[in-house]
Amino acid sequence: MDPITLETLWTRMISIVDEGAAAMLRSSFSTVVRDSYDFSVIITDRTGNSLVQATDSLPSFIGTLPRTVRAFLKEYPANTLKPGDVLITNDMYDGTGHLPDISVARPIFYKGELIAFAASTAHAPDIGGKIRSPEPREIFEEGLQIPMLKLFSGGQMDQTLRAFLRKNVRVPDLVEGDLAAQTSTLELIERGIHSLMAQYHLQDLKELSHEIRTRAENALATAIAAVPDGSYSAEMETDGLTDSPITLRVKVTIKGNEVSLDFAGSSQQVPKAINCAYCYTLSMSAYAIKCALAPDIPNNEGFVTPISVEAPERSIVNPVFPASGGSRVLIGHYIPSLIFQALAEVIPERVLAASGSPIWCLNLASLDSQGRPQANLFFFNGGMGAASSRDGIHCMSWPGNISATPSEAIDQTAPLHVVHKKIIRGSGGAGRYRGGDGQSIMFEYSGNDGAAISFLSERTTQPAPGIQGGLPGNVGYLRINGKDVDPKSQHILKQGDRIEMGTPGGGGYGHAS
């Protein structure tokens, strides 16, 4: 395929998924999608290999959503699918690693032949079960599990599945509204693909898929080959559980134009919801390698091919059923920094110091004045780690790109009043370049007594380390009515209680002059 045609088709396909993502944002019901951008939209070829991803999609979904499409195909082979079908699941192990993410996929047919899939993942505002926190001991406590099913068959929604979903969540209108936004997005993408096929007289997407994936694979392979062969290791401790930290270990081996990562030596899976499913471990690992070696190549299946990831079964980075994993981000977001720490031995100029992540999250379950359930979910960021040529950015999520929830959205949608939101000056680690600062957010609870609140928070005991002599950032803190509380436990609120979250600073880079 000549370069001009390839570039034209490539950019046209990106515009199709970006249009779909924009439509999804405008039609979604929850702050999770509309304000925090916790979703992804992709197009795959007919076998489930990703071709393009929407520009604003989360990095973690680069590796998980195509795997979900391929899992759908195992359950529903291509010859059993028809126009108007939409498949759905939130399977922890074949999905994104936790139940709140609902994944849907629509097979796209052209002139009677299956040519592609449009797929989307979005974080639901609620999935039932115990309020999202690290507390659940097994997946059955975490909410509704949706097996691989057909949400639509030939354009007709499964009303039994719809009723079952609505009955099992606290905010059925929000959950169903976001799901409708997802499925409408897939239909819009289908129309865009049909238009592309007709305009350029294409019969299928096989050649385009091969070109896109092969070029991305070759680009990353070339970048890997430029790194000296060898094995580079790193170890990091997380806050872990109340009684013990969690240890993460990785060995990154460069051999020719391939890279392998081995997480042997990492802690065992735990009876808490911080286990990180292999699908998420794989995706975060691939993302880290891409960021360090070839950040500008397109996000598609090709760049994943030269990367292999080994993680021992029953470890914290490869748990087995029925392990819980609703808070898997509390482990998964450490993985890119861990890999960067290993690569700093050989390419220090191309990696970041650790960030004040994992991203922090507040979860609130309460009743409104009429006794109806409410569920709220809001995100907040720590400071980004410093790089070899610049300071870290304040209050910026990394390795995720979830947007912090605006104060106005919180005030309008939850029984919480934002008392203050301010940068914690100097909380980033010192160095030749400073880590980004974290932030302090204080809320006052205005609802009925008895609301349950939980948090996803890390780096309250283990700071984000610096790199190349840079100093660590400040740890974060979590307080209710001025007293430090256990960030891994659920808490009960009374009207007038004040909650303060202080997110961690990022690590510094290099020795200060």
Structural class category:
alpha+beta
> How much helix, percentage-wise, in residues?
25-40%
Mean pLDDT: 94
Low-confidence stretches: none
- Total count of strands: 20
Could you walk me through the main structural features you see in this protein, from its secondary elements to its overall organization?
The protein has 513 residues and is of the alpha+beta class. The protein has three domains: 3-204, 2-Layer Sandwich (Beta-Lactamase); 233-350; 352-513, no CATH class. The protein has helices spanning 3-27, 31-34, 61-75, 159-167, 172-199, 206-225, 278-293, 329-332, 335-343, 407-413; strands spanning 39-45, 50-53, 86-89, 101-110, 113-123, 149-153, 156-157, 230-241, 244-255, 258-262, 307-310, 360-367, 373-380, 416-423, 439-445, 451-456, 477-480, 483-484, 491-493, 498-502. Strands 2-1-5-4-3-6-7 form a seven-stranded antiparallel sheet, with helices on both faces. The chain has a five-stranded antiparallel sheet with strand order 14-15-20-17-18, with helices on one face. Strand 4 and strand 5 form a beta hairpin. Helix 3 (61-75) packs across helix 7 and helix 7 (278-293) crosses helix 9. The mean pLDDT is 94. Residues 493-513 are annotated as: Disordered.
